[in-house]
Amino acid sequence: MDDAKPVNSAVTAIMLTNTSTTAAFPLSPVWEIFSGPRYKKHSSSFPESTKFLHSLVKQKLGDTRLHQTLTNVVIPTFDINHLQPIIFSSYRVKEKPTLDALLSDICIGTSAAPTYLPAHYFKTQDNKGNVKDFNLIDGGVAANNPTLVAMGEVSKAIINGNSDFFPIKPIDYGRFLVISLGTGSPKAEEKYNAAEAAKWGVLGWLTSEGSTPLVDVFTQASGDMVDFHLSVVFKALHSDKYLRIQDDGLSGDVSSVDIATKKNLDELVKVGEGLLKKRVSRVNLETGMFQPFAQETNEEALKRFATILSRERHRRHSRTPQGKAGGFYQNGVKN
């Protein structure tokens, strides 16, 4: 793997998204979502949608397994059979070989959002013949904001004396550099209220004005709690090494999970480009909204962080016996 290269650059990844998602997420009749996931394997309206998505993921990732990633990663999922989170971590593979699944299976599993995509089943077998079954759905159920999960994996690696990291004192978060990238939220839109929700039954909580309120509530709550926690911790440490980039002002189609028209995808690109020019913000713990707190823009902060990471990567690469340059880059976490 020493001569391995990334499958895609950031630019080509965006191009792939723009050319593939319309086929993967076609518009569906409302009535069909009551008989299964919106994008199920067998549907009268779009029988090929899930099949296309799965085949695309498998085509791009091939036979690559978790231990073969170019850098260490942390991918949370949730196993509905055991009702517990399953964390696919590069470091855990060494102690739990049954976690060394195909990346395609892991990605399909962690993207299987309830009511949108079908749960994904697969199994692995290690060299001793031990078999592990997985019944996975979206990792966002367990960790919609996986920053703390990644930091936990780094901390365990340090405790276990991994050569990629220098020893640190317990809860020494000041040594962490964290970049957390959100995917946007419609929080400012305030599209739900108690008077309306009081009339909802099961169907109302599952679908309202093109959204899924129940999913929105759980994912926003879990994601915000992580951000609240880390904002307080890093503020208490007088550290500027936590950067959260999130747009909480999305509304309409751009705030949807699955509207994959070319127009909407182009709008999302514009939102991302505009977010780079905005000042670095932190969540207001009273209102839950993001407010600018520095003169530095997100773009400038990312360049500063990238310089720090690049220098650290080269330094660690020169001394690590592994070929991954040490550390984690999931959600930007780096010790």
From TrEMBL:
Return the annotated region ranges for Disordered: 312-335
Biological process GO terms, please?
lipid catabolic process
Indicate which residues form the motif DGA/G.
138-140
Which EC class is the enzyme in?
A: hydrolase
Q: Which domain of life is it from?
A: Eukaryota
Show the PROSITE patterns listed in the entry: PNPLA (PS51635)
Q: Where is the PNPLA domain?
A: 1-151
Task: Tell me if Glycoprotein is a UniProt keyword of this record.
Answer: no
Query: Which keywords does this chain's UniProt record carry?
Result: Hydrolase, Lipid degradation, Lipid metabolism
Q: What is its EC number?
A: 3.1.1.-
Its biological purpose is as follows: Lipolytic acyl hydrolase (LAH).
Name the protein family.
Answer: Belongs to the patatin family.
Can you name this protein? Answer: Patatin
